């Protein structure tokens, strides 16, 4: 098990950094915002808390929450235009600095492709570097489920994405940064996990993560030390 010093070294020399999105890159949980927008906020927020605590499987929680929300295509688009996701302070500067260093940045999220792509655009991250869940709609725009074949639809899916990235791009050092249990589970195959508590503190992650930060400035400073 790597020490904190070794983890910092891995981060400074990483080929790729993968960020969770909800409550990490952005301040809110996308699915909770969508639920509020569709009028079922309280019920869905409770399900999210249970899912993030790691007590139910991710796919079961996602299926149950989306079954309650049943968002239409129009509602999803209106949410993005009326209530665009709020970037977490410091993330824009951190991603920009990583890009300057030639580090590949990926967004690996249990959230929804359309919302995450909107976030990627703001951070100059190519949409090819986005791994997220895809909502499905009927021709009339009504909710038709979600693509269950996406790795991010399952518990352990973020680890599968990282394994795929290592195989495809031959990355030697990959870092995963996030606030939740599904992010922590992605290490290994990630070479280092950094817990993030700047928007919400998950007790399990704070207690178990060897490297835990509450502001992205801490990582920016780490890069400047090299």
Key descriptive features of the protein:
single chain; 226 residues; alpha/beta; Rossmann fold; DNA polymerase, domain 1; 2 domains; 6-stranded parallel sheet; two-stranded antiparallel sheet; 12 helices; 47% helix; hydrolase
Offer a concise description of the structure.
The chain is of the alpha/beta class and 226 residues long.
Structural features, described:
This protein is of the alpha/beta class and 226 residues long. It has 2 domains: 4-28 and 84-224, 3-Layer(aba) Sandwich (Rossmann fold); 32-82, DNA polymerase, domain 1. The strands form 2 sheets. It has a 6-stranded parallel beta sheet with strand order 3-2-1-6-7-8, sandwiched between helices. It has a two-stranded antiparallel sheet with strand order 4-5. A hairpin with a 5-residue loop joins strand 4 and strand 5 (143-146). The chain contains 12 helices and 8 strands.
